[in-house]
Design a protein that fits this description.
By secondary structure, the chain is an alpha+beta fold. Helices cover 34% and strands 23% of the residues.
Length: 147
Amino acid sequence: MDSSSTYLLVDSEVLPEVFSRVIEAKRLLSSGKSRTVNDAVREAGLSRSAFYKYKDCVFPFYETSRGRVITLYFVVEDFSGILSSIINKIAQSKANIITINQNMPINGLADVTISIATTGMTMDIGQLMESIGEVEGVRRQEILARE
């Protein structure tokens, strides 16, 4: 997911059926009714490739980012204060930082992962990512995982 991503609220009736099936497979996995991805996609009538293609992009309306742990990934330039600027953006959104991991810079760029709890956030995750993307020296940002 990149900074040009746009989130939409769309009636599932107008979407291709594959999206509903991906949500069904995810529900089967999270509820424990299916123990493996193979079982879940078979029961949902979906191919594994379609599941993996869309699983990180399709969510039911009630499954928002609020009250979740989200891991963010960044590639940043190696200069003083850039991590502080990112942390300030997260603090402004009222998210709670759980972990921060920054790898050793190579060729002037460093990988950073930050896990946040989103319970008290005052903006949605898309707005936060857009805000962080505007920080000078942030070369790339994406949502790595949602829990």
